[in-house]
Design goal:
six-stranded antiparallel sheet, mainly beta, five-stranded antiparallel sheet, SH3 type barrels, single chain
């Protein structure tokens, strides 16, 4: 059984946080106990109760660990940017995404709008990719 864990992007604070606990209500996260990256914990509302233009405003964006590690042993999460270890071009970068229809994680090529590839683990026990960032903290670096 794979480990279930999350991290959260703080939309306003522009920081990534480890998630220690999540409270759910009506199939959506309400609040969480987050690590402040300095050894402390704080409770944060992951979604507000009030609708804005018919949507829940996102203060924190949850990303789930996909159950695989890269070639360096780094856990891979939704929103991570991966580069295949056998190619060193910007054109070969992928975003880790969730496909609700097939209930699986996949790699979305960043150089084209459509398509994607399934993630897998090689014979050495790791995914043959390297995490080089994520779409929130490194967005400018990948364009």
């Amino acid at each position: 059984m794979r480990e279930i864990k999350f991290r959260a992007w703080d939309v306003y604070g522009k920081k990534m946080h480890a998630v220690k606990e999540i409270s759910w209500n009506d199939e959506r996260p309400m609040d969480g106990l987050l690590n402040d990256n300095e050894g402390g914990l704080f409770r944060a509302y992951l979604n507000e109760d009030c609708l804005v233009d018919g949507k829940y405003p996102e203060y924190f964006i949850l990303m789930q660990f996909i159950g695989l590690h890269d070639k360096n042993g780094t856990p891979i999460y939704e929103g991570d940017i991966l580069q295949p270890i056998f190619v060193g071009r910007k054109k070969s970068l992928y975003e880790v995404c969730w496909d609700k229809g097939s209930a699986s994680f996949y790699l979305k090529p960043l150089w084209k709008e459509e398509g994607g590839y399934l993630l897998y683990r090689n014979g050495e026990g790791y995914s043959p990719y390297e995490v080089i960032g994520n779409i929130y903290e490194n967005k400018e670096d990948i364009k």
